[in-house]
Amino acid sequence: MSKLNTDALNKLRDGASGEFRNKKGYTHYILTCGGTACQSNKGVEIYEGLIAEAKKQGVGDKVQVIKTGCFGFCERGPIVKVLPDNSFYVDVKPEDAEEIISSQVKGGKEVDRLFYKNPDGSPVQKAAAHGDLPPIGFYQKQQRVVLRNCGIINPEVIEEYIANQGYIALQKSLFEWKPDDIINELKTSGLRGRGGAGFPTWMKWDATKKVANDIKYVVCNADEGDPGAYMDRSTIEGDPHSVIEAMTICGRAIGASQGFVYIRAEYPLAVHRLELALAQAKDYGLLGNDILGSGFNFDIEIRLGAGAFVCGEETALLRSLEGGRGMPTPKPPFPAVAGLWGKPTCINNVETLANIPAILVRGGAWFASMGTEKSKGTKVFALTGKINNSGLVEVPMGTTLREIIFEIGGGIKNGKKFKGVQTGGPSGGILTEKVLDTPIDYESLTQMGSMMGSGGMIVMDEDDCVVDVARFYMDFCVDESCGKCSPCRIGTTQILKILEKITHGNGDEADLIKLETIGKAMQKASLCALGGTAANPTLSTIRNFREEYMEHIHDHKCRAGKCKSLLSFTILEDKCKGCGMCAKNCPAACITGEKKKPYTIDQSKCVKCGECFKNCKFDAVVRA
Ligand SMILES: Cc1cc2nc3c(=O)[nH]c(=O)nc-3n(C[C@H](O)[C@H](O)[C@H](O)COP(=O)(O)O)c2cc1C
Ligand code: FES
């Protein structure tokens, strides 16, 4: 590859645009999901199988098989899409490769059995065009800005990004706009940080720009430590150039010539695609010295994090990037003033950055036309838990939780009852049915006692115990607290001990007051937001589900059956047929009896795993 100037880039884009793939004379393009979820579900075998089948059936030169980023609908992955028919196939298996090639590529007939079927069994119609979302309930209320290229382009081929309006925003930023114009466009857009705090992006860029210093840095926060969140990973896996382009624009706007992507080492696929993308951008002269002949220099390096939650906090991240221990430092000074190695540093989240090229191409006003009064644009949520359609969901801000959970998510698994939804990870809280119709944005989520956080959304049903969930998050925070400040170090440990006491049936009502007192003290006195928000799941569950805490405390009962110490299993003599299935499945060998006579459980040996309950066909085992 030779270095491009802006005319050469335009030519490359014009030549590539839209029909980039068709130039090669293929009749079919098969897009296979190359996201982590689909890859771990035989996605690679499907991809390789399709290539092998095409060759075997003599159409190797007619079909191009392409690995894309995540399609979003991970619940029904691996996903395969065939162009130009726009056939959207779900739950594809490696053995389906043969029929996709023989029936569709050779015979012109789609493989109907692989189409998504609506819950009522009716087949789903196809999207009108590549790029349109398929008319499946899961996609109906979605609008893809951040994920605009995921599932559309091959993230490993820079020309595909360029063909889809890639690097236009950079060209404008280098040749048409002054730094202030870029920042003003971001101001018009109303974009706020997607890493959790929701700080206006333009203000951060402006603040870093205004600090005089010869050396400044741009940092991309790809740490993504929230349990259940994977939108940043998928964005990098599916569209790494959008982040690279945005970081370079940021460098131009604030006057920096070096950027770093801080990404956790547990994301090998994202790291691999990012490395490839950086190398390609450098080869084309879109990174490095004299970018596109503009005289502007900017380079990006990757730094791997070891996977500590606190290293996502910006000041701790910067200490880790410097090679030190990832511990937060007090703010001010903010990174914009004194960040990496004491230099002005602009640090942004992956999703925030991925929005930026789209905003600069389509205009700030376009972005601001989506969302709510104070939260513009879209937000990507990682919808997981007891939900029918788990996956990545990008919706305009202001969409309600009910729309996300019951329309996009298709409701609760196995017809169970909705109990609550955890938003914002360990920093958020569990929201109840009462607020399902509230349009969600940064402010409304905080008002409801939770947080946007980075966008994890974990749905819970009647079989989840909220006290146990609060205990789980506090256990996570005890492990992840860096221990530097005592409110967080001691507070998290004390709250965990009390929650454990309650889940073991040894709590009393005074414990609830203690939990609230410690939680509030942590909110006020912790050094960073890890400690400042760690009590949120506990406080929100006490507020929203007080009666369940009371049941644990007074009745020694866990209605969800999750707190093992409060459980007992017994066999009803009159119902037991003596089939022995309970004893056969008991891992603790604590059930005894004779065939055709009632069996009994030795309570002193029972580990409360519930296998007897699950395996009894006669409802003779009762859980209390
Ligand atoms: C404990 C803790 C963990 C955090 N983890 C992340 C993270 O994984 N990714 C992220 O972008 N921001 C994370 N943040 C927020 C960052 O400190 C910072 O606000 C953000 O990266 C700024 O980018 P934005 O303005 O684009 O949101 C975390 C904050 C705290 C307190
Ligand atoms: S990883 Fe394939 S659809 Fe998400």
TrEMBL record:
Keyword Iron: yes
Domain of life: Bacteria
Record keywords, A-Z: 4Fe-4S, Iron, Iron-sulfur, Metal-binding
Entry keyword annotation includes Iron-sulfur: yes
Coiled coil: none
SMART domains with a match to the protein in the record: NADH_4Fe-4S (SM00928)
Record-stated family: Belongs to the complex I 51 kDa subunit family.
NCBIfam families to which the protein is assigned, alphabetical: PRK13596.1
Name listed for the protein in its UniProt record: HndB1
GN (gene name): hndB1
